[in-house]
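Sequence of UDP-GlcNAc:undecaprenyl-phosphate GlcNAc-1-phosphate transferase (Arthrobacter cupressi).
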Amino acid sequence: MIMYSLMMLTAAVVAYATTWGARFLAKKMRLFGPIRSRDMHSVPISRLGGLGLCAGFAVALVVASNSFFVKDIFRGNTAPWGILAGVLVIVAVGLADDLLDIRWWIKLIGQALAATVVAVWGVRMTVIPFIPEPIHIESEAARIVITALLIVTTMNAVNFIDGLDGLAAGVAAIGGVAFFLTAYWVHRNAVLLDRSDLAALLMAILVGCCIGFLPHNWFPARIFMGDSGAMLLGLVMASAGIVSTGQISSGLYDRVNGIPTIIPILLPFAVLSLPLLDLGLAVVRRTARGQSPWSADRGHLHHKLIELGHSHRTAVVMMYVWTAILAFGGLAFAIFPWQLVLTADIAAALVMAVVTAWPYFARRGSRTRQ
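Predicted 3D structure, token representation.
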């Protein structure tokens, strides 16, 4: 835990410092994107925050490769460097979009390229969790294609939810903590000679990057992470999920007193369930209008929360709490009796649903009294 915490701290310090540098660079060179109809801010703000996240991730990964305990992850393993290569590609694509507003299909090609880099030189989906037995993917081509599709989907899900100050970074940090604790708990309780784990390291670094970036991005934001930062978070989270999924057949993720768990693949989707739901609704909504699925609008979940009557900050906190319920509620299934966890999760969700809809009920009650 100490080494993971140090890597998290390293990523946080570097991300915080380099985001300052990105803010200075943007101000010096006037690198501000135009205010779009869907944006929630009214003054020009730089979208170069992805540079800080990228620097934090890259530096922490290099430091980890030379640090006690976690350096064992890199011994004879090119996966971390393949993931870093994918990160560098997607940050370059995202910066091009943030600065030049490239066409959606060009960005999609860039996403596919970054995901393929990870799939070829980083990590690959080798097992599909399924009860009672996992399905093994034998074809290398199928592994690459499935991996790339998962990464592209996750990148777009995170990118779609990045619409309010502090939202994407906070959601990723909360989900990353739950994911890290899952991977760490599993490996600490397993009979292994080497308990270091790439998924745990990736999540520790990702959480650190988000923590370092958030002070600059919290409402009112001084800088945005842009597409470069949002897609970076999605790529790293998807890669960590794929790493853990490949460990299912080893028995590491089997529950001691219960059914075999599929936490490695379900937890990333639980963490990203709100972004994925938002992505799915956006595709359906835009397609029904005859628009491109990638065209922009103000119909995202965070926009709906503000339309309900929540303030900017409150809407972000609402999304944080929902993410925590889904992420830590999913994590709890791997540790506690499922009956207890299910009851607690349902109760928490019901309470949160009432809190979320409270402004609507308040307005309706006010009209009824009048």
